[in-house]
Specification:
mainly alpha, Glutaredoxin, Glutathione S-transferase Yfyf (Class Pi), Chain A, domain 2, 2 domains, 4-stranded mixed β-sheet, 6% strand, globular, binds glutathione
Length: 213
């Protein structure tokens, strides 16, 4: 069976997992923790990062590369717009989520949740610094881009939305929400993202694992 290497709490692994679940692609998860990787994992993921993917045809690393492959191989239930301009904009949002949101929102999660799981001291000063100096810029940009209704490219949740949602899931686990009074469009969009059945199911699974409500 096709294998997804990683753990669902990782935003980048969850991104691939959501694509797999929405596209109903059979797979198994091979648990690999980002900071405790099995020997030889570099043969599957050259940079040693999760997620990685292995099936009957290919071994791949990087969530975007994996998701684009899944889209090409399993085009039913498309997760990218068809038109070139829409597809390019979708790729931009995915890139923004992976390279700008992950280091900001992901660090808050890493400090407050991952470090606690590893019995390491939480650097709350670092969290506060991110919340005050880095998070607002991201929220201001996303407020300017958030759709008035539905998702970024219409009524269906697509890869651009998934890439953003997975980062907001971890931010929520870390106890930070979008303030509707400050960011009304973004707060409403994030609410719609988190209520999508596939996303809500991922959150429920995470909470079971974390032992939170
Ligand atoms: N661009 C990569 C980033 C993957 C990534 O940064 N994964 C993190 C976990 S969310 C990781 O494996 N960190 C451990 C490390 O860098 O060694 C992707 O989209 O898959």
């Amino acid at each position: 069976m096709s294998k997804l290497y990683g753990v669902p709490l990782s935003p980048m692994v969850r991104k691939v997992l959501l694509a797999l679940e929405i596209k109903k692609i059979n797979h198994e998860i091979v648990p690999v923790m980002p900071f405790n990787k099995p020997e030889g994992f570099e043969k599957i993921s050259p940079l040693g990062k999760i997620p990685a993917w292995e099936d009957d045809k290919v071994t791949l690393a990087d969530s975007t590369v994996i998701c684009e492959y899944l889209e090409d191989r399993y085009p039913e239930q498309p997760l990218y717009p068809e038109d070139p301009a829409g597809k390019a904009r979708a790729r931009w949002f995915e890139e923004y989520a992976d390279t700008v949101m992950l280091p900001v929102l992901g660090t808050v999660f890493f400090e407050r949740i991952a470090k606690k799981m590893m019995n390491q001291p939480v650097d709350e000063a670092k969290v506060q610094e991110i919340l005050e100096s880095k998070l607002p810029g991201t929220f201001v940009y996303l407020e300017s881009q958030a759709p008035e209704a539905d998702f970024l490219f219409g009524p269906d949740l697509q890869m651009a939305d998934i890439s953003i949602a997975t980062n907001f899931i971890n931010l929520g686990h870390a106890g930070v929400n979008v303030e509707p009074a400050e960011y009304p469009k973004l707060a409403a969009y994030v609410e719609r993202l988190l209520q999508h059945p596939a996303v809500a199911n991922r959150i429920a699974e995470d909470k079971k694992f974390l032992g939170t409500k």
